[in-house]
């Protein structure tokens, strides 16, 4: 609008690109940053860089971590014979909140979705196969969201894994169909885990 | 929850402290940052620092700018005899959007609010007095929000300025009482500017 303050405009643009942030919110956030104490703003900027630089996928389960092998995969008290396959790191957190699951995880980082051009090759399926071929795994729990993509991915994986001699199970439909795992409450999620059935 | 990724947790905390961002949104934003291309994340961090470092108050009108004297104060085509007094830089932008006001501004950076412990000394009132004492100003338009604090600030300032021999006016009540200047549409704002009256 005639007189623009470039550093402010650019910051507003960055906030606007974040998911769920509109034009008005982006402005409010940018002005908030201007009024932050200098150290707070510096720390905020550093945290963005740190998160982007230091966090990567665990060499085993592909969950996000800031160490080579994530704390869950390194934990010797956890049952390495059961692998719970999920779509995203947020889903791992949801299961950890139940405090009832003692196996390990495998994070696919997505679901098969032909509509969005995402095929099996874009997911971390090869890494899952490698873990099972290495032996010591007796059960794989398909814990993808109960949506079309989640079901399709679970079916695809179960066909791929069964020939390898592992038991493949699916979360029980305690979770509401069409819903989102990340928002399920602890009890529902635990029931779904208990009532899992062979596919 | 047992296994935390420190850089991620800290980034989530930063987002949570922003206005209007809840726990769930903060998580979503942080995960979004993790998935950003590296250059995007670096640019985002740099923009936060840049905005905080390069933007300061204009030496004359106290509006935010990245140069010594803001483009509005430096613009010789603008009418320096009329000063529009506003609460915040966002209000200046709202007036500029009308494209009808050709005077200059003075940004108070707040309103008198005894409830929140904000007195006249915490606002940029001394700087306004200095501009008027320097001469060449014939009218001061009180364009604070039509709220209790906005009215109180306008009254306080008008009593302070009238003895200096300037005409002090107030925006017409074309703007809805109790509303917020920043969200007024251009036409309403222009009507309010046209119908201003002496106080």
Report what the structure shows.
2 copies of one chain form a homodimer. The first copy, chain A, is built from 8 helices and 7 strands. The first copy, chain A, has 199 residues and is an alpha/beta fold. In chain A, the strands form 2 sheets. A 5-stranded mixed beta sheet of chain A has the order 4-3-5-6-7. In chain A, strands 1-2 form a two-stranded antiparallel ribbon. In chain A, helix 5 links the parallel strand 3 and strand 4. The longest helix of chain A has 17 residues. Chain A is elongated and about 65 Å long. The mean pLDDT of chain A is 89. The interface between A and B is large, with 51 and 51 residues.
CATH second-level architecture of the largest domain in chain A: 3-Layer(aba) Sandwich
Number of helices of chain A: 8
Q: Which CATH first-tier class of the largest domain in chain A would you pick?
A: Alpha Beta
**Order of adjacent strands in the largest pleated sheet of chain A:** 4-3-5-6-7
Distance between the termini of chain A: 60 Å
* Number of strand segments of chain A: 7
Could you tell me the mean pLDDT of chain A? Answer: 89
Q: Low-confidence stretches of chain A at least 5 residues in length (pLDDT < 50)?
A: none
**Rg over CA atoms of chain A:** 21 Å
The gross shape of chain A turns out to be elongated
**Pairing-aware structural class of the strands and helices of chain A?**
alpha/beta
H/E element sequence of chain A: HHHEEHEHEHEHEHE
Helix content of chain A: 40-55%
In terms of quaternary structure, the protein is homodimer
Q: In CATH terms, what is the fold-level topology of the largest domain in chain A?
A: Dna Topoisomerase Vi A Subunit, Chain: A, domain 2
Largest sheet of chain A: 5 strands, mixed
Q: Biggest interface, and residues per chain?
A: A-B, 51 and 51 residues
**Which percent range describes the beta-strand content of chain A?**
5-15%
């Amino acid at each position: 609008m005639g007189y623009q303050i470039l550093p402010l405009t650019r910051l507003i643009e960055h906030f606007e690109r974040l998911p769920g942030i509109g034009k008005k919110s982006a402005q409010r956030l940018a002005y908030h940053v201007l009024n932050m104490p200098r150290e707070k703003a510096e720390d905020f900027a550093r945290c963005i860089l740190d998160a982007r630089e230091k966090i990567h996928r665990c060499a085993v389960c592909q969950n996000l971590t800031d160490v080579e092998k994530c704390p869950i995969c390194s934990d010797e008290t956890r049952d390495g014979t059961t692998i719970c396959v999920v779509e995203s790191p947020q889903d791992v957190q949801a299961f950890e909140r139940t405090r009832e699951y003692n196996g390990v995880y495998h994070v696919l980082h997505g679901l098969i979705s032909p509509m969005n051009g995402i095929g099996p090759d874009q997911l971390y399926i090869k890494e899952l196969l490698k873990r099972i071929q290495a032996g010591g795994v007796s059960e794989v729990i398909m814990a993808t969201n109960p949506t079309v993509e989640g079901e399709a991915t679970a079916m695809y994986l179960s066909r791929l894994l069964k020939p390898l001699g592992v038991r493949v199970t699916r979360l029980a439909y305690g979770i509401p169909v069409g819903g989102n795992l990340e928002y399920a409450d602890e009890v529902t999620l635990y029931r779904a885990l208990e009532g899992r059935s062979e596919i």
